[in-house]
Amino acid sequence: MKWLRSALCCVWMPCVAAGCALIHHDSAPYAAIAPEQIALADDIHLARQGWPAARWWTRFNDPQLDALIDQALAGSPTMLIARTRVAQAKSDVELVSTGSSLQVTALALLNREHVSAHGFLGPFAMNEPALGLTGPWYTEGIVGLGASLNVDIWGKQRAQIAASLGVSNARLAETSAVELELSADVAQLYYGIQTTYRLIDLLNESRDVAAFAVQAHEGRAARGLEARTFTEEARAQELAIRRQIVAAQAQIMQFRESMRALVGAGPDGLRVIEPVALPAVDAALPATLSYELLARRPDLQAMRWYVQSSFDRIDAARAAFYPSFDIKAFFGFNALHLGDLFTHASQQINLIPGLYLPIFDGGRLNANLSGAREASNLLIEQYNQAVLNAVRDVALTGTRLQSLDAEAGLQKRRIESVAFARDSAEAHYRRGLASRLTALEARQPVIAERVALLTLDGQMISQEIALTKALGGGYRADPPVEPRPR
């Protein structure tokens, strides 16, 4: 190969001097993001450190959630689309790879031809058997094998194959990103349902208290001990609680239908979701992000592979300026009379080496190179922005978890304070110093504060799932290689 390349260079240099297609302009590639920009502020930290594990959702120890996520990863249309895109990319790699392989074709041709007396083969139009001319009709037969081989001297074909491989690897990473997206969305919906179940329980407690208050006020109003206004106020409060219960039940139905669409289940394909206790939040942040985040995020890995593929496309566009070389060959039989086709004299052998040099192309090659370079620069900027967005996602969710943890601690102390008044009212009722209505109504503020704590707990679970997603959900590319511009 070296001698061939040297020989072609000897042909190529005079061509350059004579005006062959030249690279007029090729701008420098954009720079990838700096490592110091892949970091969190010093004041963002959680109690635990570390990265999510594979199948991170199993940490919640909930068989229902495990089964729902497995169902989504197996049968969701979104997953099927992602896997189909991977298969399509692999087919593209195989298709591009065939361009550098030896191509062999079997050929069989039958041609019934009337020869023109005024054409190039005019003498063959005569019918003079003594001279071997039996025109003007002939039945030509050709049988044999044809072969062609493109010699990839400048690496154009190799660059195209590498570009296709880059797209294939990007599609694989995108599949992992879809898996992460699906698992996180299923977990968010699942704990949305579980939080709403718990909310309905608390609202039922509050409704029972409100219903007793209505009965108590109706009895006192019937005996003339108080105005009916108190009864209607109590009833209005009860109706407001019932409305909240109806809204919460509708929310569960909406969550279920969203879950059904997410996992790709039919009308009866989604199992009944039973209420379970909410898990304790145990989120963790790594001590440092740096380039480790790039290897942990499948979407960033996909972008990196697309950038790498764009560099290979630039190499292919550059190689298009250089001469190409191929070899074509044919071996078989060719005769104007079928009776002579398979005789030794009818053997035909062709060996055709070909050299192709671009000279004047109207700027097509330069436009192709410029387009490849600009497309690569665009991908680099999109990659840089995706990295910054990933760092932002981690920072925002980590900060929000810090804040929610502090709020939850304060809310628990608030419940303790409000519960003291409830316990005091119940103690007075047991000693006959207060009515049962007073003791029950003292529970309402506690229930309201428990609802507030439940809201915080639900938000913390949601943010923990969001943080897991922002950190890549257990995905890891090995090794974490960064794109190198060309």
From TrEMBL:
A GO molecular function term, named singly, is: efflux transmembrane transporter activity
Q: Where is it found, in Gene Ontology cellular component terms?
A: plasma membrane
User: Keywords assigned by UniProt?
Assistant: Lipoprotein, Membrane, Palmitate, Signal, Transmembrane, Transmembrane beta strand
The topology of this chain with respect to the membrane is:
Lipid-anchor
Signal peptide per UniProt: 1-17
Q: Which domain of life is it from?
A: Bacteria
Pfam families, per the entry: OEP
Location(s), subcellular: Cell membrane; Membrane
| Gene3D superfamilies assigned | Outer membrane efflux proteins (OEP)
Q: What is its main location?
A: membrane
Q: Which InterPro entries match?
A: MdtP/NodT-like, OMP_efflux
Q: Does the keyword Lipoprotein apply?
A: yes
Name the family the entry cites. Belongs to the outer membrane factor (OMF) (TC 1.B.17) family.
Q: What is this protein called?
A: Multidrug efflux system outer membrane protein
Q: Tell me the organism.
A: Paraburkholderia atlantica
